[in-house]
């Protein structure tokens, strides 16, 4: 089903297509963990991220989307088709990252993708070669010769090479270096531009923040939209090593939180424009300064809204 949205600036009605609709999806475990009453609509041609620490239920959510018998209750539809009655058609339009490959260590990547290609009506083998080339992975390499990062990348390529309309990636950046992560970002942006819908489950905020249209936090089994909190506050993790003892007054700024001082080591979260901070510490004798992306756990601990 589609929805109409009015664009005031251009005076036109935009037709919004939902590629995925999740309604009251629930899967509870005996240890009181899982997901409960998850509601989410994903627009075609969008990137949505679900953040959360390990054990929050991100993998459970993805598994419940693709396994109708797994959930306790709720409904899931893909372009308004339900999974139970349209399983094979839906699985062809979905790309899902899972950390497993055929258990034949002497198979080459060429053999793997030739075999996988037989499952689809069209020939997608050249797509696999294109992605392998982008990540500089030899098609003749065997499974038992792959590094942990290459293993992850092959599973990502498995999820993408058949040109799915929806892509589900669970912790896609694990074991990848920064160059590989940047290439993956570019690939996801291109897919979005071609009206592909992407759902990312991750704890890696720096990977997802810039490319996501919507960001949700999975906490206490439910989802909360934190897009504005993440994008508007622009959190940074600051670490300073000083050549002098610390004066607390140097760090009295409303933008600073979670301040920790240990002798000459200072760390804190900072949100907003960095100019006031740099002006405040300009007179200090600084040995080193690091500015990094905070983890989602650090932001959760700092923000009462979450």
CATH topology annotation of the largest domain = Rossmann fold
Q: At the fourth CATH level, what is the homologous superfamily of the largest domain?
A: P-loop containing nucleotide triphosphate hydrolases
Could you state the oligomeric state of the chains shown? single chain
CATH class of the largest domain, please? Alpha Beta
Number of structural domains = 2
Distance from N terminus to C terminus (CA atoms, Å) equals 32 Å
Using the CA coordinates, give the radius of gyration.
22 Å
Detail the poorly predicted runs: none
Number of helices: 10
Succession of helices and strands: EEEEHEEHEHHHEHEHEEHEEEHEH
CATH architecture of the largest domain: 3-Layer(aba) Sandwich
Overall residue-averaged pLDDT value: 89
Proportion in β-strands = 25-35%
How many E strands? 15
Trace the largest sheet across and list its strands.
7-8-9-4-10-11
The outline comes out as: globular
Q: How would a textbook summarize the main sheet?
A: 6 strands, mixed
**Helix residue percentage:** 25-40%
Assign the structural class, choosing from mainly alpha, mainly beta, alpha/beta, alpha+beta, or little secondary structure. alpha/beta
Strands, helices and their partners?
Layout: E1 2-7, E2 12-28, E3 34-43, E4 47-51, H1 58-66, E5 73-78, E6 81-82, H2 87-93, E7 94-96, H3 109-117, H4 125-134, H5 148-160, E8 166-170, H6 178-193, E9 197-202, H7 205-208, E10 214-219, E11 222-225, H8 227-233, E12 236-242, E13 256-262, E14 265-270, H9 275-281, E15 286-292, H10 296-302
Parallel strand pairs: 4-9, 4-10, 7-8, 8-9
Antiparallel strand pairs: 1-2, 2-3, 2-5, 5-6, 10-11, 12-14, 12-15, 13-14
Helix pairs in contact: 4-5
